[in-house]
């Protein structure tokens, strides 16, 4: 029996009484989450979902029951009184996405909770360390403030400042600040910025939904005089730049406005509310132009020191105007905020022309630059951002500015201006915009600049890392790193296509990149928010636009099943990778209506409209093949969701719809005399295979045609963005991972390897390197690294990595590969290597889960685990079987070190 000792310092600090050196049980509980977040504030879902993790050194450990206590006070929780919810023992192995089942929750309520579990032998664990969540403002009448603004002029150049001074009589016990500032805001209390977020709140369709945030400002307040101040930016709420997507004519467009409520609880039981109303004062901020596409300007001479403190004299400030509220309902923002995640030092500086300084940050990314310098007051310094350099060494923007500057050549694009205040050394960066760039060009600076005069600031949604991959091929490691930079640069509260030219939430780009995003990052909460954005955009005809959110653009162009299916595919990925049932079921009706729309628009169960395989290397594929295939997948997802909800009639209906689509697809596109589909392109063939549309008896002939097509292209990819996802996966699923690997590592054009060898450090939009150099749309290869090369695969039959399938592939020149993924249940890890004629594979799966491991059988000899023959049942191994050229092991949780003889030939699946 193993004995460990509890780590009690954190609990003791909360007043928990535990005997020192108490022997710990086999299982402990930690990793408590509520709605994917740790101790979240401001939730507005009536039944928050709770998750926890088990820790155990025992192989095959699992949960057989749990008990959740939720209390209204710390004291009740300490005393094991779940006055809000005591679940009692629930006989279940569910430890993720457990819905709160207690008393109805009220606005501002804090809920303290903990959990204990029963292990596989029925022994009970200690309770977990305590955690909490806090409710937001659940009803419109809970808001006491009114919407205010400086004015209603949507063309105003300067950003507004808003402030109010107030007195607090008594000791502050607790204070919460609830705020929605549109388009963006920065809030200060007593001279200090609150929190470390930027670009809050998240971008939504503001006439349908606007997000508010909750802050704990207890420590920022004091007895006596206080002040709160807010700076507002235009953001997407008041786009002043003309661009192709018509956000300057958005139906929600309005001048920046603010709704805020500061609620203070005193130690003696009294409370006070400081709301936004006509008592607030307003003035112009030093921030001038701040447009999401154009950039931001700042005049340091206009600063008003102390404007956000109680001592400031605001007698010359004008009263704020009480204005109309936006039409959208207020909803809590419950996704990780956007943050300035890291600072990047430039790697080089040049002066291609006198007074023109160009900084190379050595990495393409999203954000802005921080300028540090001294000079005379009134000196105007300009920073222009881009991905490329022109022939003369200056920054070139043509490839990324065309949809803005072409509409109006007078408009600036990705350009910030700073006017010095003349008060010694000054440092500044933009607040309410972000750019996509590797290079920044600085002009107008006084004196001579140095490499340290500019620092890059990487800005993105602050999603935790959830995965790592590495292998013996350095080129693939470069692709993996480049994909991660592109993914984060395109996660700014919505999943975007590029961080410079568009910043649009293209639906096709989002679903094509979602699996690799979920392998690499804990991004589920961002996706849940964005799926709600799609629901907001679905119109009365059940149509979905190509970009989300939209001003109205994209319902008639840029959409279609290959793009719109993000509305169904991403919720299904959240279910598959995270066990998130609600992501599917909460949108079931809307998803069903979308499939019904496709049925109405289909002809003989096929779809001949929508976007085709965008950005192919050379061969176009008609949209009817890919659109019909997504129609098929959408019908299957609706049928599966209906099964989760228990709607048996709908299950039958949409399974029948899917079967009809499959038959029609083969009747229209399959050529039995040649064994090919459509025009025989790589996308046509791999689409049919990947989407499960090929009848089993024809699979071999279809694969033969795909292999022949690849040979005719010297084993180079010839697809667009849709086919790039299908191709590698279809080859792997049909026993030709060797070909997929060769495609992935091609050093010549077209291919990911060619990008890397030509200086790419992010993924590009086009195979030839034209257009954007920071897109994520070809990024599914990163998911293929995890699934095919390292061998980590989720199982949709046991979602959330409740069951993991490990099936590594040793191909090409690879000698080792390793990967890790933070699943909802805990870390899922694997690493393989070829050493002295043996294939070694180490896997780790967390407690309360199981796995199936495929070990290649390339030479005589039985598999071993930690040096012992695997000849039947042994510790943690529930079953051993052979399947074709694989040894298949069913295992429980734990860490295992397997080894088999290796003859140097990878078996087919």
Jot down its keywords.
909 residues, alpha+beta, Immunoglobulin-like, Jelly Rolls, globular
Question: How is this structure best described in words?
Answer:
The chain has 909 residues and is α+β, with helices and mostly antiparallel strands. The protein has 5 domains: 127 residues, Immunoglobulins (Immunoglobulin-like); 193 residues, Jelly Rolls (Sandwich), CATH 2.60.120.260; 122 residues, Jelly Rolls (Sandwich); 324 residues, Glycosyltransferase (Alpha/alpha barrel), CATH 1.50.10; 99 residues, Maltose phosphorylase, domain 3. Helices cover 22% and strands 30% of the residues. It has 18 helices and 46 strands. Strands 14, 20, 21, 25, 26, 27, 28, 31, 32, 33 and 34 form an 11-stranded mixed sheet that branches. Strand 20 and strand 21 form a beta hairpin. It is globular, with a radius of gyration of 29 Å. The two termini are 41 Å apart. The N terminus is likely disordered.
Stated plainly, the CATH topology of the largest domain is called Glycosyltransferase
The coarse overall form would be globular
The CA-CA distance between the termini, in Å, is 41 Å
Number of helices: 18
Please write the CATH class name of the largest domain.
Mainly Alpha
Biggest sheet architecture: 11 strands, mixed
The whole-angstrom Rg is 29 Å
The domain count comes to 5
Name the average pLDDT. 95
Task: Name the poorly predicted regions.
Answer: 1-24
CATH architecture of the largest domain: Alpha/alpha barrel
Number of strands: 46
Which structural class do you get from the secondary structure elements? alpha+beta
Strand content: 25-35%
Helix fraction by DSSP (H/I, runs of at least 4): 10-25%
